[in-house]
Design brief:
single chain; 114 residues; alpha+beta; two-stranded antiparallel ribbon; 2 helices; 35% helix
């Protein structure tokens, strides 16, 4: 008797779980297909929330970078992190805009002419 009750309860639950797995898999497959084809209807769809649209070459990534406050040294220099990880002290003029910064990465590069 208990095996009949287990079958009556268990079979619909297994069918429900199977349908849910197929539904999620199918929605992901359809979304990948729409993204690959560049379907513009995704932008207005109520099913998906679009927070940012980026046009970039295949394989590109978007990384969030936390902005760091610039520490101004009292001697008129600003600490700047270079792409290779080194720290450079860039001179600034007091009460003036920075018009150009000479790259300290390449010693043979001439500063831009103004």
């Amino acid at each position: 008797m208990s095996s009949v009750v287990a079958a009556i309860v268990g079979i619909p639950i297994m069918i429900g779980i199977g349908w849910l797995v197929w539904y999620v898999w199918n929605n992901n497959r359809l979304l990948d297909k729409k993204l690959a084809s560049g379907d513009l209807e995704l932008l207005d769809s109520t099913s998906y929330k679009v927070t940012e649209v980026i046009r970039a070459p295949a394989g590109s990534r978007v990384e969030k970078i936390a902005l760091q406050p610039m520490a101004v040294d009292m001697s008129g220099y600003v600490r700047k992190a270079l792409p290779d990880g080194r720290i450079a002290l860039v001179p600034i003029a007091v009460n003036q805009e920075i018009k150009s910064v000479h790259s300290s990465m390449h010693t043979n590069q001439q500063p831009p002419s103004q």
